[in-house]
Amino acid sequence: MIADFADGWLSFWVSPEQFPAAIADMHRRLETRGRDPERFEVGSEIQIYLSDTTAQARKEALPTLRAFEEGYAGTTGGFAEEGDAADALDEVWNSSLIGSPDDVAARIEEFVAAGCNFFELKFVYRDLAHLEEQWRAFATDVMPRFS
After folding, report:
1. How far apart are CA 16 and CA 91, in angstroms?
2. C-alpha span between 95 and 113 (Å, rounded)
């Protein structure tokens, strides 16, 4: 359906390492339908959590990512190497932006280099004050690197 009607694809649980194969597959589908792949946008719905260090961010985000592992069981692995069993928690981690501002910015660059050109950021947070803290950290410490 995406290749038939959409002008873009908002993926989820796709890592930068998996995007080239996923995009190539989508381009093949578009071409089969007589559509121009160059006019097709590719994005990702992506979990994000910032902290001073990546180790701290991973520790603090772990309960939420484990809940995703359980809640999304069976929906990951669409782009695992043929014959490989997908580990849902690994795919959730690998397709998220969890870390220090430096590490998150570097990971965004990997997504962009892999062909992802827009993001729907899903901030992980404890309460509304923490959500605002996450937004401010992203706006201050990550976004300026991409202006």
Report:
1. 11
2. 14
- Per-residue pLDDT tens for 49-108? 999 999 999 999 999 988 877 765 555 545 545 545 467 788 888 999 999 999 999 999
The three-state DSSP-derived secondary structure of the chain is CHHHHCCEEEEECCCCCCHHHHHHHHHHHHHHCCCCHHHCEEEEEEEEEECCCHHHHHHHHHHHHHHHHHHCCCCCCCCCCCCCCCCHHHHHHHCCEEECHHHHHHHHHHHHHCCCCEEEEEECCCCHHHHHHHHHHHHHHCHHHHC
26 exposure class (CB count in 10 Å sphere: 0-12, 13-18, 19+): buried
Rounded to two decimals, what is the model's pTM? 0.85
d(CA 73, CA 89): 9
Tally of domains in the chain:
1
- CATH number of the domain at 17, please: 3.20.20.30
In whole angstroms, give the CA distance from residue 67 to residue 72.
8
Q: Which domain holds residue 142?
A: 2-146
